[in-house]
Automatic annotation (TrEMBL):
Pfam annotation, one family: ATP_bind_1
Signal sequence interval, chain numbering: none
Family membership: Belongs to the GPN-loop GTPase family.
Keyword Nucleotide-binding: yes
Keyword GTP-binding in annotation: yes
A GO molecular-function descriptor: GTP binding
Keywords of this entry: GTP-binding, Hydrolase, Nucleotide-binding
Protein name according to UniProt: GTPase
Amino acid sequence: MIVAFLGTAGSGKTTITGAFGRYLEEQGHSVAYVNLDTGVKRLPYTPDIDVREIVTVEELMAEGYGPNGAIVESYDRLLPEVEKIAEKILKLEEKKECTLIDTPGQMESFLFHEFGIMLMDRLGEPLMVYLFDPEILKRPHDYCFVRFFALMIDLRLGTTTVPVLNKIDLLENEELERHRKYLEDIEYLKARLKLDPTMQGLLAYKLCSFLPEVSPPVRVVYASARNRTGFEDLETLSYEHYCTCGDLT
């Protein structure tokens, strides 16, 4: 099975890729690692496939590109190699029980670049793990945003996407329970949004009103790379995804 980690810079993709991989290995599973980040300096795992062998942001900056331009250019240069990279990943999947893909630190360079779309399209039915940080969950409409953003990833990449609230070791129990209530109880979220007089609140209320109609059957995972909370749930979801063709209720 193939599991890819996607999220904004600082959401913990690389850390959780390494930690979840070690967890699986300790459970007796064989694991392969794929690094798709052209700008990363150090990794907490040894990649079986590493796009830095083809191009790095550092090399491009030495050519005169700025940091952002170098990131975009690196994926432009990887695009002709996408078929070969996909073939290598599929070969790893044949040999290993689980292949973990660590996507770029700057999420937009994968999600909004043709390289990411073409690669995911060639990997069959990979499970996408969308990591989001508790820091962005301040107001009721923020919860609506993360639920719909997971759907937008589905739409953009054609993958089954599992929303994962990461870094929950930083939360008090009361905070975590509040997040659970907003993320899992759509009727509670709608009731809170109905009290919000802002345009954001109105938009979020209308969106959440038809969320059950458009949302695939997935559940939110609460995780921490530090103490491995949620890793068992994530492992279970990964196997369910490959056994039930995406029904992750």
